[in-house]
Fold:
Amino acid sequence: MIKKQILILENNQKNFETLNAIFAKEDFDCSVALDKETLDGLNIEDFDLVLVNSHVQYIDVVALITLVHADFSIKVPILYLDNAKEHDKKHLQECFNHGVCEYFKKPFDKLEILARVLYHFHQFQKMKEYKLRVDKLARLATMDQLSKASSKMHMNAILKHEVNNYKRYKVDTSIIYMSLVNVDKVVGVFGFEKGEKLISMFAKELKKTLRESDALAHWVGSEFIILLTNTDTKNSRTIVQKINETLSKIEVVRGTKPLKAFGITQFIEGDDVEELMSRVQYALKEAKKQSYGRIEVV
Structure:
């Protein structure tokens, strides 16, 4: 059952209790803020709707909208209640200009206010469900489902962004193209399921060796791309040696350690993504030819 959370900004407890009794009929869980200190102690994002007495003194409509709409991608609906004999037209206009959804005049009809609150609650739920679907699609586009690393498409976008950054700021940036050479043989003997488990395991261990500023992508098959920011090829080789040591602890099958090869290159003046990838792919090809070390820098 979905919890229906309403935050009510009021001047006094009695007004809150009146509203609470109305909304309790539809199983709303109401919280009240009678002063700024209480409001500051609450997380607006925990609520599905904010109901405000227009005469509260501790926060104005602009400050409230700023607070509610701070960093939330889905905006919590705000409804105002006015118990004055006549609407303050200036205040009414100010509320709607800043994104208030409803503005009620007291005395209000209990069934009407309940119906309107329910409408805005359900609209908000629909928006949250829509956002969940969009976020899921975004994750599917940016994350490789097997390795839980970035997808090839997402890494291409990252590389394009980093190439543009390099053109502007000339900050040392390197990429590593890594291949698990003997995983394909394991797949041939034991099947794809075993190979997929190994790739997932290697990706998990790889992430542990990298910094938060670095990016890891499952490129194709048993190959990975690693983007190293603020790192030249000398330091990249040190990182590769650490990766090599970490992954060597994993057994591909009992008694068989993984064979790995690493191509390394650094961003240079005039690079685009195609030239960068061509160079690091060549480095990996040369690394695979080696009988020892299997690390090539170009």
